[in-house]
Design goal:
Shape: globular
CATH superfamily of the largest domain: Gcn5-related N-acetyltransferase (GNAT)
Radius of gyration: 20 Å
Largest sheet: 10 strands, mixed
Order of helices and strands: EHEHEEEHEEEEHHEHEHEEEHEHEEE
CATH class of the largest domain: Alpha Beta
Strand content: 25-35%
Length: 353
């Protein structure tokens, strides 16, 4: 008898279950992240009991056979600020597929988000490989309280050409990586008017102010407050944040993490969560992003990624040798209650999970 209930184990056991399941499904077929225990502890806040309710799991007795997890947050929407979550980390033991476990976990997660007044769950469905088991959109674009908003792709920046080429699963991507190698120099920390340094706790109020200015023009965005942004920027060894400061005032910041990704080989990949350049001069944007790229490379990173939602200036990305990849994921909004009404097609600031 399969029971759906909150996840009960450790971050280490959760990481082992999800990554082992994804390895069985996708190893050698497509690239994917290997979610570390520390990453899951950070994003899901597993050490805080109040967030455990959002971590939905399926059990056969004491055996973990499925997960569908969520990182609670708030969003700024056309209807104002609403509670919600970023959802991801779907994994089902192959022995238990075909028993409608995914549907039951999805219903339970939505119920739990709605129980706390949540209006929106944001997630992605990867379609960039024929091997992906991710859900595809129905013909009417709306199904079971979900809306497929559109397709999204990554901005990508190669950090180590030979290793990135060996890591790529698809042969043509490996060839393009090698061909583009001479035109993709190693990131250099260049001279900036401001001081670039790691973020500190006393920077948080200013960073919140900058994020609110940046996201004011977005159709949907994470609604950062001091507690949520402090956790995102400083709440784990996985979280890395650099700020640029001029005359004692923080003008902008970038927040990123580095995780192992499995392609043909296993390599570290850097992921930008926040690129906030709201008050940074054009001269200082490139040095700040390059400083983060250099840090990723020093940590062994072969590639840097930023999900393309319209929240990062494309000019700065191009100057720092990012290239836009073709869309490979559907952005999906799930409505625990009534759908939010308004413009949902403009630039957004959302995390990739």
């Amino acid at each position: 008898m399969i029971e759906v209930r909150p996840y009960e184990g450790s971050a280490e056991d959760l990481s082992n279950f999800v990554t082992a399941t994804w390895r069985r499904d996708y190893a050698g077929k497509m690239a994917f992240p290997l979610w570390s225990a520390e990453y899951l502890r950070w994003q899901l806040r597993l050490d805080e009991e109040r967030f455990r309710k959002y971590q939905v799991a399926a059990y056969d007795g004491t055996r973990l056979v499925g997960t569908l997890l969520a990182a609670p947050c708030a969003f700024q929407t056309p209807e104002g600020r609403v509670a919600g979550a970023h959802g991801s980390w779907l994994a089902v033991d192959p022995e238990y597929r075909g028993q409608k476990i995914v549907g039951r976990m999805a219903e339970e997660r939505v119920r739990r988000v709605a129980e706390d007044g949540g209006r929106l769950v944001v997630s992605y469905r990867f379609f960039g490989s024929k091997h992906s088991l991710a859900e595809r959109p129905p013909t009417d674009k709306v199904d079971g309280g979900k809306t497929f908003i559109g397709k999204r792709g990554f901005w990508a920046r190669v950090l180590d050409t030979p290793r990135a080429a060996r890591w790529n699963v698809l042969g043509w991507e490996s060839i393009l990586t090698r061909v583009g190698g001479p035109f993709t120099p190693h990131p250099r920390v260049t001279t900036a008017k401001g001081v670039i340094r790691p973020a500190r706790d006393e920077d948080i109020p200013r960073c919140v102010e900058l994020m609110r200015k940046m996201t004011a023009r977005m159709s949907v965005a994470v609604a950062w407050d001091e507690e949520l942004l402090r956790h995102q920027l400083l709440g784990s060894p996985v979280a890395q944040t650099l700020v640029t400061e001029t005359e004692g005032t923080v003008r902008g910041f970038v927040n990123f993490h580095v995780l192992p990704f499995l392609g043909r080989t296993e390599e570290p990949v850097g992921v930008f969560d926040i690129v906030c350049l709201e008050a940074v001069t054009s001269r200082d944007c490139v040095p700040l992003v390059n400083a983060a790229l250099a840090a990723m490379r020093e940590q062994g990173g072969v590639l840097a990624l930023k999900i393309g939602c319209g929240d990062a200036p494309w000019g700065t990305l191009l100057w720092t040798h990012f290239v836009p990849r073709l869309p490979d994921s559907y952005l999906v909004f799930q409505w625990p209650q009534a759908p939010i009404v308004g413009n949902l097609s403009g630039p957004m600031h959302l995390l990739w999970r």
